[in-house]
Predict the structure.
Amino acid sequence: MKPQLNRILVLLVLTCSSLSISKLTQGADLYPNHPIRLVVGFAAGGPTDVIARVLAKDMSETLGQPVVVDNKAGASAMIATREVKSALPDGYTLLFSSLGMNVNPILLGEAAGYNPKTDFAPISNAANLPLVAVTAYNSPFHSMQDLLTAAKSKPEAVSFASSGSGGSGHLSAELLATLIKQKMLHIPYKGNGPALLEVMSGRVDFMFYPIIGIADNVAAKRVNILAVGTAKRLPQFADKPTMSEIGFPGFEETAPWVGMLAPAKTPAPIIEKLYTSMNKALAKPDVRAQLEKLGAVVVGDTPTEFQAFLKRDYERWENVIKSAGVKADLN
């Protein structure tokens, strides 16, 4: 009787799985028929949250159901990421995430509580938030070439600040160090604000800083921009070269990204509806203007393109983190 019982159990499992998949597929035809929750792993008011809210408002109109932003800040956005990973893949619980989604598991391994390669279905990369390399206004380094010449003279001859270990500014500078094959001295702070103050004072040589808000400090002659981390020169800093021009092609992909993902196994028709709605929003002049005012570079790639980008993003930071010996900051 045992073999027969096992066969019955297997059939029951397969039947239940088929019914679950069928139910989700049927639901995709009616999707959405109630509010969608967009989980953000950061506090309200930050760049990721603001961009999520701009898109949520417009997508609500297109989809015919409210897209409600739910802030679940904490643990480097891992609380939000784990919650969406475990959600039903029906399109009603989504994640609006950033660079840390890939970086946290590289630094923490299984302790991160999710696998970015298998636990999510990418929808679209909304935008990138470029970094700019800055020094104090009266710094002896007047160009990126000046800084690199000094950096190559001996290990840790040049120092750089960051908002903390494993952040975008830290990893971008470590990437630069690996590319020039020389060690630079990392000095982490509790946030970009304190880090920038130390750079302004001249106590730290430079940092990669998010473009948001930097124009005011340039105008006030507190900082000088050495280079911008964008594919093309920025209109507001047209005299400043890109990292590619200096000799580091592709550096613009180090910019923190902000994008939308769903739990793995979310039906393709639902992913397509969400992508189409998000892409329509990003194509609107008023939405683009709001994002560009933040300093964001609009992307709006397809789910397939976003998946390929996330794979490159993971591999890039894995190489940098291993090469530079970056450790998780658990303080």
About this structure: The mean pLDDT is 91. Residues 73 and 215 are 28 Å apart (CA to CA). The chain has two domains: 31-129+256-324, 131-254.
